[in-house]
Amino acid sequence: MKKEIIISYRENNTRVALVENGQLVEFYTEGESNTRSVGNIYKGKVKDILPGMQAAFVDIGFNKNAFLYVDDIIRNDEKKEYTIDQLLKKGQDIMVQVSKEQIGTKGARVTGQLTLPGRHLVLMPYNNYVGISRRIEDEYERERLKDIADSIKDPNMGVIVRTVAVGVSKEELEKDLDLLIGLWNNTLENYSNYQSPSLVYSDLDLVERALRDLFDKQVDHIYIDNPEQYRKISQILKRKSNHLMDKVNLYQSKRPILFQFGVERDLEKAFQRKVWLKNGSYLVIDQLEALTVIDVNTGKFVGTDNLADTVVQTNLEAVKEICRQIRLRDVSGIIIVDFIDMLRETDKELVLTFLEQEMKKDQTKGQILGITKLGLVELTRKKVRKGIYNSLQQLCPLCTGMGKTMTDFSIKMFLQDKIRNYIYENGKKDLEITIHESLEEAIKEEIQSLEDDLDITIAIITSDNVEKNYLSIQ
């Protein structure tokens, strides 16, 4: 599989794309209107204790207070059960880390279980165990890495060994750990010196996070269009991973880099509700407030003479695109997939097994919960940051997110009642109504009929800057 990282860098906007076999699978953006806070550590102040929810609101300097759940607070005795008001007091300072971005009306989610990620290791200052990435499946390598981690870690701290640590020497892991402990000591110093609320540790910028989190041995090339950032990446790799230097390329063409690699094309499709597959079938993806629903349809695909085989082929083709779209759109929370009905149990098992394999390519943790009695497949995916649905889109000012408008017939029906009620309440004979310009011809007969019937005069004002359902009466 060909794997590339494409980086478009501007002073006020950075975009990173992960491309697999020529297709966009992950997209990240950071700029003036889309800053990231996940991973940052703050000196916060407890503003409210909520005993009924066993949680607290913490001021970390955002426009909305962050939410801290009782199980996310560090305690001296992990075996003992504590209530929120036993652990925290209103007005006290506390060190917390953002675990989920502030989205919409919901404030950020924070935790006291702090982590500092490095290239090969993740430092856990307030835990004391060794974890090995679930993506490392070789038992011998897992044991080797666990033994090294146990031997080099601080007795009072914990570490998680990341997937990219496979085959890495003890010396390299020690270097990574020393760097993380230095960052932690600096964080503690900032916490002691700063007033709350304050930022005491900031995670890396998007370019450096791409190197840390995306750039593994499977990546064939990195392309970046900014000379200064190219030199910065080169310097980082010389210090930490000199063997990867040959994979970094400075893109110098006048054509925008995202167009050159087809990223813009795939990104535009990611905003569409209907996604066509290569075999002629298609997906319909609806991202709602509580969950995301994905519907699989055969579309133009007629398949073979055997209906059951056609159905399973369509569903297997859909699985690949569903997993790609989930990663690309960064869909999180509850996901419901309505595959085309399969009668054979072996076909259901085949599709679920393939779905599990494809989901393993995703860095964000997901889980298949199974098939419901209605034949729907239930998934969950960890929510960490805003997906492109929230970060690059906004509610339509005309339909305010509904996605549909009323029919001309229903608008005319309600129009009559609203005008009659307005006259009843205000007693006016000369009215002025404002409507969308597309309705002017459709309601002329209704307006004439109302004028004759009620002995009134109605002036029509049209506008193209209102939703089609809009009606104002004066």
TrEMBL record:
Transmembrane segments: none
A GO biological-process term: rRNA processing
RNA-binding is among the record's keywords: yes
Protein name: Rne/Rng family ribonuclease
Keyword Manganese belongs to the record: no
Domain named S1 motif: residues: 39-119
Keyword annotations from UniProtKB, A to Z: Hydrolase, Magnesium, Metal-binding, RNA-binding
Organism: Alkalicella caledoniensis
Cross-referenced InterPro entries: NA-bd_OB-fold, RNA-bd_AU-1/RNase_E/G, RNase_E/G, S1_domain
GO cellular component terms listed in the entry, alphabetical order: cytoplasm
Gene Ontology molecular function: any one: metal ion binding
Cofactor: Mg(2+)
